[in-house]
UniProtKB/TrEMBL annotation:
GO terms for cellular component: membrane. This is Oxidoreductase. InterPro entries: DoxX (IPR032808). The chain crosses the membrane at residues 6-24, 44-62, 68-87, 107-127. It is found in: Membrane. The keyword ATP-binding does not apply. The keyword Amino-acid biosynthesis does not apply. It holds the Pfam family DoxX. Its main location: membrane. It is a multi-pass membrane protein. Coiled coil: none annotated. Keywords: Membrane, Transmembrane, Transmembrane helix.
Amino acid sequence: MDVVLVIGRILFAFIFITSGIAHFAKLEMMTGYAKYKKLPAAKLGVIASGLFFLLGGIYIALGFWVDLGALMLAITLVLAAVIFHNYWKETDATTKQNEMIAFNKDLALAGASLIIFALIYSGAISADAFGPHVGNISFFNK
């Protein structure tokens, strides 16, 4: 089961690691989009979300401070859903549908992140049960 758990962690983390890298590789483009969505301090927001996605994904993939990584992802995902995918403000049917899909995806991923956070933080999953990992799986519980 360790192999399945590691594969699942890597697959879950992959979207965040690649997204975090994209935030930095396409910083100006993403900053322009954040400005379009009226995010105050747009560039700082893009950098912060990119960092949270990148570190959160790496932490989960490696099994190091998994609870912190999952919490970072959950916070960023909920904020992204509300700020960037506010489908309720759209009037074009196609745009509204696309934003609703993105909103729901972000909330589902935030929910999965919170489940991971709760399982690690509560001690319901021990380091041994978590599968191969690098260092301590918990930041908050030592």
